[in-house]
Amino acid sequence: MRYVILSKGDPKSEALKHKMMCHMQDFNMIEDAENPEIVISVGGDGTLLQAFHHYSHMLSRCAFVGIHTGHLGFYADWLPHEVEKLIIAINKAEFQVIEYPLLEVIVRYNDEGYETRYLALNEATMKTENGSTLVVDIDIRGQHFERFRGDGLCVSTPSGSTAYNKALGGALIHPSLEAIQLTEIASINNRVFRTVGSPLVLPKHHTCHVKPVDHGTILSTVDHISVKHKNVNAVQYRVANEKVRFARFRPFPFWKRVHDSFISSGESL
Length: 269
Fold this sequence. Notes:
By secondary structure, this protein is α+β, with helices and mostly antiparallel strands. About 20% of the residues lie in helices and about 45% in strands. It has helices at about 10-25, 45-55, 85-90, 165, 255-260; strands at about 1-5, 30, 40-45, 65-70, 75-80, 95-110, 115-120, 125-130, 135-140, 145-155, 180-185, 200-205, 210, 220, 225-230, 230-250. The radius of gyration is 20 Å and the shape is elongated.
């Protein structure tokens, strides 16, 4: 089994990474940062997001596992005292692979034919560079839907619906559903300007285009990555063809994670 371990970098995570590598040598596991079968993140959900983007070019060939050294995460579900159990499970059992939908983001510029493409595990946002009002036209399936004015927009995956999207009042979507969710960030609604005012859940076969009215500089985030784009013609959002693969060695129900994270870890459903 070829593996790689990515650590948050703090002393606790680094110590756990070293401990795991010593155990993995006993099982003759091969450390291979170039072509791993298992990508193990040690830290939290942020560390796993970094691991995902580092290996996003080989999603069909590797599976991710998260170990949290802080608070319980939606992706990092193993505890530090369980690492020996995890290593044994990796070597002794055929693990289940769970696939989650991803968000594809394509930024197209006024320079014809020039575009950049990203994949998001959690979400992508669009705001203005200087914090001024974002004014954009939103098209869905090639038809104009609305002109948005406000602080910005957030487009999330189902697994990312529990993150920034939730804080904006978006719905929580089970990761078995291939969809994306468009949520407003402080929209302007009055007698002159009007938006739908509700999150939109788009299925896999629907594509959303967001077109800046002034074609100026926009600030875009893709998970933890922030990029400024100039002279933007449109940004396309849709469910990606690729999926992220997680290695599962035990049940990890989505709704239990929601319950434990936002309601009470001391109560049972």
